[in-house]
Amino acid sequence: MSGKPDRLFILEHAFDDPAFPGSTFYCRDCILIEGLLAMFPDRTTNLEVIRVPWPRPRPLVVEAIGEADQNLPALVFADGGFVNDIKPLLDALHVRHGFPEAHP
User: Fold this and answer.
1) Are 23 and 73 in contact (CB under 8 A)?
2) Is residue 63 a contact partner of residue 7, using CB atoms and an 8 Å limit?
3) How many CB atoms are closer than 10 A to CB 80?
4) Whole-number average pLDDT of the chain
5) Kind of pairing, strands 47-52 and 74-76?
6) What is 12-63 written as a DSSP string?
7) Residue 53 to residues 5, 43, 44, 50, 85: CA-CA distances in angstroms?
8) pTM score > 0.90 for this model?
C-alpha cells in the first residue's frame, strides 16, 4: 500500500427518504461497517472514514469512483481501484487492514 490511506465511504448514521415520509432509516451494510470500526479501532490507522449524506448525487463519492458507482459502503484503495459490494469490501478490510474475517 502507498503512504496515503484507503478511503472508506459510508452513509451518515440515520437518514430520511422522501419516498417514505415520517420514517428514518439506516443502511444495514454501513451499520455493519460502523460496528467493525468501533470494535477494532486499532485496525483503522490506514483508513480515512468519510461519512456522506444519503441523497444522490454524492459528490465526494462521484469524485472518487464515478457517478455510476455511488452504492455505499465503498472502500477506495489508495493504490487504485475500489469495492462497494459488502462481501468483497469485508474481505478487503481483512486483507488490507487486518480486521477479522466474517464467519462463513
Assistant:
1) no
2) no
3) 7
4) 95
5) unpaired
6) -S-EE-TTSTT-EE--HHHHHHHHHHHH-GGGGTTEEEEEE-SSSP-HHHHH
7) 22, 25, 21, 10, 19
8) yes
Fold (CATH) for 6-97: Glutaredoxin (3.40.30)
Supply 56's cell numbers: 444522490
Peptide bond into 21 cis (omega under 30): no
Using an 8 Å Cβ cutoff, are 10 and 72 in contact?
yes
Q: What pLDDT, on a 0 to 100 scale, did the predictor assign at position 2?
A: 57
Give per-residue pLDDT as tens, 9-62: 999 999 999 999 999 999 999 999 999 999 999 999 999 999 999 999 999 999
Residue 28 makes CB contacts below 8 A (sequence gap 6+) with: none
The position carrying cell 459502503 is: 73
Residue length of the chain: 104
Contacts of 5 by beta carbon, 8 Å cutoff, 6+ apart: 46, 47, 48, 78
